[in-house]
Design brief:
- The longest helix has 11 residues, at about 1-10.
- The chain has one domain.
- The radius of gyration is 18 Å and the shape is globular.
- The protein starts with a helix and ends with a strand.
- The strands form four sheets. Strands 1, 2, 3, 4, 14, 16 and 17 form a seven-stranded antiparallel β-sheet that branches.
- About 15% of the residues lie in helices and about 35% in strands.
- It has about 280 residues and is mainly beta.
Length: about 280
C-alpha cells in the first residue's frame, strides 16, 4: 500500500502540472544547437547519418529532435539535443515543448517527443519533490495524445485505475499508478529504482499507457543531476512483449558536451521487435 500511495501521489500533483502547461517563453537571440553525430568510434561515425527535426525555442536557447541511422538506413538511436542555456533558464513555472522528429526517416513506433520542466517537482515528499525534467517519447499521434482525458486517481471508494497493460507488456516490478494525467495517460514506475528502495531520485525510467496500450517511454531526471553530469548510459529493463512492431531501445544516455555546451538525451541501441 505504501508503494501504491507513492504512485498515486506521483500522478496527482507533479505530472498534472506538467501536462496542463504548454509554455514557450519568449527569448531573444536564442543559442543554436549545433548538429553532431553521436559519440561513436570514427569508423562507425563515417557510416552513420543523423537527421534533425526543426529547432524549437526554449528559454534562452533551442532544442531539436534527431534520429541516427546506420549504413543500411536502419534507425539505431533517437533523442534530443538541448542547449545548456535552455536547461538553466526554464524559470519558475512548468513548461512543455513538443519536438518533431525529422521527416527524412521513420523510426517506428515513435511519433514525436515532448520535453517538460517541473520546477518544484511533485509528490511524494522527499522522493520526486525536486526540480526535474520529463522527456516523453510518444508512440501515438499528437491528436490521440490530446484526446486523453483526466481520470481522478482517487475517489471515496479508493484508487481508480485505467485499463492495465496485459501481462508481459511492462517490465517486472513496474507498478502502474491510478488515474490518468490529461494529454499524457497512466504512468508506471520502476519499484526497483533507487527512489523506491531507500535511495534518492536523480534519474529514472517510466513506461506510459492509455487504455491498456503502451504509449510512451520516459526518462525523468533532476536539474541537479544535469548540472553535475558528464555522461551516463543506463540499461532499460525490457517487457517480454511489445504491441507495436518497431525499433525499441535497450539503453538510454544522458550526456553533456562542453563544446557546443549542450545536453543530449537519447534512446540507444535500437533493436527491431515484432508485435506480439
Amino acid at each position: 500500500m505504501k508503494q501504491l500511495h507513492f504512485v498515486t501521489s506521483l500522478i496527482t500533483r507533479g505530472l498534472l502540472l506538467a501536462s496542463v502547461a504548454f509554455i514557450v517563453p519568449a527569448c531573444s537571440q536564442p543559442e543554436e544547437v549545433t548538429p553532431r553525430l553521436s559519440t561513436r568510434t570514427e569508423s562507425l561515425a563515417k557510416s552513420d547519418k543523423t537527421y534533425y527535426g526543426p529547432a524549437v525555442p526554449m528559454g534562452r536557447g533551442v532544442a531539436r529532435a534527431w534520429v541516427t541511422v546506420n549504413a543500411d538506413r536502419k534507425p539505431i538511436a533517437l533523442g534530443i539535443d538541448v542547449s545548456a542555456k535552455s536547461v538553466m533558464t526554464q524559470g519558475d513555472h512548468p513548461t512543455e515543448y513538443t519536438l518533431q522528429l525529422p521527416h527524412q526517416v521513420a523510426v517506428p513506433p515513435f511519433d514525436h517527443i515532448d520535453f517538460g520542466w517541473n520546477p518544484e517537482g511533485h509528490e511524494p515528499d522527499g522522493i520526486y519533490t525536486l526540480p526535474h525534467f520529463d522527456l516523453h517519447f510518444y508512440m501515438i499521434t499528437q491528436a490521440l495524445q490530446a484526446s486523453i482525458p483526466f481520470l481522478a486517481p482517487v475517489t471515496d471508494k479508493g484508487p481508480v485505475f485505467d485499463v492495465f497493460p496485459a501481462p508481459g507488456y511492462l517490465p517486472e516490478d513496474y507498478q502502474m499508478g491510478p488515474g490518468l494525467v490529461p494529454n499524457m495517460g497512466a504512468h508506471s514506475v520502476d519499484l526497483r529504482a533507487p527512489e523506491f528502495t531507500g535511495g534518492k531520485f536523480s534519474r529514472t525510467f517510466i513506461y506510459g499507457s492509455y487504455q491498456g496500450h503502451i504509449t510512451f517511454l520516459e526518462p525523468m531526471f533532476t536539474l541537479a543531476y544535469l548540472q553535475t553530469l558528464g555522461s551516463e548510459t543506463i540499461e532499460i529493463r525490457q517487457p517480454a512483449f511489445v504491441e507495436r512492431a518497431g525499433y525499441y531501445p535497450t539503453h538510454y544516455t544522458i550526456s553533456y558536451d562542453d563544446s557546443p555546451k549542450q545536453y543530449r538525451i537519447s534512446l540507444d541501441n535500437l533493436v527491431y521487435r515484432s508485435a506480439q
